[in-house]
Design a protein that fits this description.
Layout: E1 11-15, E2 18-22, H1 26-29, H2 34-39, E3 55-58, E4 64-67, E5 70-73, E6 76-79, E7 89-92, H3 98-107, E8 121-124
Antiparallel strand pairs: 1-2, 3-4, 5-6, 5-8, 6-7
Length: about 120
């Protein structure tokens, strides 16, 4: 029977393009991080939200809005503002003309995805 090792706190944090572990012992720190273990190599950095073209939302009343960053869950699109020139908004998906929204984004080369199941969450970017 092996002696019990003391439990140490562990923090796993997204750092740039990969997860980084903090608070491990020296022997555990030598093991590859999650990105390396999954793919065998580091992944390239992902595009930031300001590098993506904005998504266009077309409402049932015909007006349009563009959003750069959003989360969709439980029938609500949470459009995040930048804190300076844009305010955050909560938009019911029922207020959108989803067919026209899909087409408008497709025409602009923007991927617009809805959750497949009620408890799914979609984030952009």
């Amino acid at each position: 029977m092996q002696p019990e090792r003391p439990t140490e706190p562990l923090l796993i944090e997204w750092n740039g393009d990969r997860f980084v572990r903090y608070g491990e012992t020296q022997s555990a720190a030598k093991s590859p991080d999650y990105v390396e273990a999954a793919s065998g190599k580091n992944l390239p950095p992902q595009a930031l939200s300001h590098d993506l073209p904005p998504a266009t939302l077309v409402f049932r009343d015909g007006h349009r809005e563009q959003v750069n960053d959003y989360v969709i869950t439980r029938g609500v699109l949470y459009a995040r503002g930048n804190g300076y020139t844009q305010n955050s908004r909560n938009i019911q998906l029922s207020a959108l003309d989803l067919g026209t929204t899909f087409r408008a984004n497709q025409d602009n080369g923007v991927k617009f995805v809805l959750p497949e199941r009620p408890n799914d969450v979609v984030t952009r970017p």
